[in-house]
Write a structure and sequence with these properties.
By secondary structure, the protein is an alpha+beta fold. The protein contains 19 helices and ten strands. A five-stranded antiparallel beta sheet has the order 2-1-5-4-3, with helices on both faces. The mean pLDDT is 77. It comes from Paenibacillus helianthi.
């Protein structure tokens, strides 16, 4: 398998080639020793071995023990090479910097220093006992080569400092990327949620708090709201019997929470230490988001939790406010439409109906005194008036139907969304629809759109798919949805395990919840490098019976 070279790999390869070229040039220019032919042959072998070690270092970076063995072998080879080409005077004694860099940058602290001291000790001992022609003492020989030892020590120190900074940066980047993925997924879930599952917003938020903070317990407590019912307070991590006690304790401090503007650390009797963050809309106080802190958490960890809760607090407030504004807007739209229809009915249809009723009443009183032609004329007039009323009613009804008036339909919005997703991500998305959604209730529209959007988004973001097939069958009594992709796939057992541990799989869990909330069945099949397929079957009408 070909391993893609990183910027660090390319830098090390460049340094290795430059250092080997310079030391080889110095070796060639030295007139002592073997002939130029043998020196050239040795140098070519060294370049070949350097290439082999470079490739294997890149492939072995995930197996530290094997990498340690490879570095040790190269160090031993360099010792032999330096001893055979002049000992202390060998230009290849500095070439040891290459494996030292690998060890300091990729392996443990203790191994790097053990390797360095081992190299210098073995090299110094062999040179003293077998190549000490000048009769120097061991201390003098070591001091004469102190610069070499100093260079190696400084190299290890600097490389380990750089490696530590690199690891910290990678950890921060990974945490930031993970956070952004969770936040995008959270916003997507709430953005497409329906009124039916919007009341579970607290549960969605607490699940994501646990994922973002890596803590075990989180909560979203909603303050009481006059008038309309507020979403239920939710928690993640506590036992069911502990939930009532938790929210009862929080309710005792409601007055304090309403005055709070900043994050607060609070110790609740019998529950432990909490970090709590108020959630405020522009018009009112909503509630508190919080996490239960571990005793071992330091200051830096608490700062990270504060950042996450502040963001989720603002996001929750925006989402709740948008939802309330949406509810008000829908009510205004319905009210305006009712008024418009009432005006139209009053101005045209009701007047015509009144005329028909009056004409019928008159005909009933006078038909015996009328001639046949007069009676036929009067009936024809009533018939024409009834036909006119039916036509006006049909026009009014058609104006309310987006399908018949040419306005945007639900299926049209699904097609538009998938088309945009395909174009923005350069992914082929094939949509096949059979049946009609005209009589499908609104909760089904919202749930299906969210499932389709979530599944296709996952296939692109996490599955790296190049093609996604969406098949939707709409029948009077059944809805069947199939979404399959050619992405990398995953282990489904591991997904559900992580979902239970609150470490992954919330997107799939939410899709499953949406299908089951409508009385449907959710099936997931996937394996590594074999794509993913989601099959959903939903009986039409079951959700209405459940909520009746």
């Amino acid at each position: 398998m070909k391993i893609k070279a990183t910027a660090e790999d390319r830098m090390i390869t460049l340094y290795r080639n430059i250092s080997l070229s310079l030391t080889s040039l110095m070796y060639l220019l030295d007139h002592t020793g073997p002939s130029v032919f043998y020196k050239s042959l040795l140098i070519m072998l060294l370049f070949l071995f350097a290439l082999v070690f470079t490739v294997y270092y890149r492939r072995l970076r995930k197996w530290p023990r094997v990498l340690m063995l490879a570095v040790s072998i190269e160090i031993a080879g360099i010792i032999v090479l330096a001893l055979c080409t002049g000992g202390y005077d060998s230009p290849f004694k500095l070439y040891v910097l290459n494996p030292v860099l690998i060890a300091a940058g990729s392996l443990s602290f203790y191994f790097s220093w053990s390797l360095l001291f081992g190299y210098f000790g073995i090299f110094a001992v062999f040179c003293y006992f077998f190549m000490n022609s000048s009769g120097k003492t061991f201390a003098e020989a070591v001091l004469d080569n102190g610069n070499l030892f100093l260079v190696l020590v400084l190299t290890v120190i600097i490389m380990q400092m750089v490696n530590r900074i690199k690891r910290q940066r990678e950890a921060a980047n990974a945490r930031t990327n993970e956070t952004m993925e969770h936040i995008k997924s959270l916003y997507h879930i709430v953005e497409t949620s329906s009124q039916h599952d919007f009341m579970n917003i607290g549960q969605v938020i607490t699940d994501y708090v646990v994922k973002l903070t890596k803590l075990d317990k989180a909560l979203f407590w909603f303050a009481k709201k006059s008038g309309e019912p507020a979403p239920e307070s939710r928690q993640t991590g506590w036992q069911q019997e502990e939930e009532w006690f938790l929210f009862a304790e929080l309710e005792k401090h409601e007055h304090e929470w309403r005055l709070q503007r900043e994050p607060v650390f609070k110790s609740l009797p019998g529950l432990g230490d909490f970090l709590l963050m108020p959630v405020r809309m522009s018009t009112r106080f909503v509630g508190m988001i919080g996490v239960k802190l571990e005793a071992s958490e330091g200051l830096e960890g608490r700062r990270w939790y504060i950042q996450q809760l502040m963001f989720l607090s603002e996001l929750s407030a925006i989402i709740l406010e948008r939802h309330e504004l949406g509810v008000i807007e829908n009510r205004l739209i319905i009210t305006n439409e009712q008024n418009r229809i009432a005006d139209e009915m009053h101005d045209s249809v009701s007047q015509s109906l009144f005329g028909i009723v009056y004409a019928t009443h008159s005909l009933k009183q006078a038909w015996r005194k009328m001639s046949e032609s007069e009676l036929e004329e009067q009936i024809e007039l009533i018939h024409d008036s009834a036909t006119k009323v039916a036509k006006e009613l049909r026009i009014t009804i058609y104006s309310l139907s987006s399908k018949k008036s040419g306005g945007p339909t639900w299926l049209g919005m699904v097609r538009s969304h998938l088309k945009s997703l395909s174009r923005l991500n350069d992914v082929e998305i094939e949509l096949k629809i059979t049946g009609d959604d005209f009589s499908l209730p609104y909760p089904y529209h919202k749930a299906l759109f969210r499932i389709i959007s979530e599944a296709t988004g996952n296939a692109i973001r996490h599955g790296a798919a190049s093609r996604v097939d969406v098949e939707l069958s709409l029948k009077p009594k059944w809805i069947r949805l199939s979404i399959s992709d050619d992405g990398v796939g995953f282990d489904t057992d591991l997904l559900w395990t992580e979902s239970e541990d609150n470490t992954g799989g919330l997107g799939m869990k939410n899709m499953q919840y949406l299908a089951q909330s409508l009385g449907g069945d959710f099936q997931l099949s996937s394996s590594e490098n074999a794509g993913t397929r989601i099959l959903i079957s939903i009986p039409v009408g079951v959700a209405e019976l459940k909520n009746a």
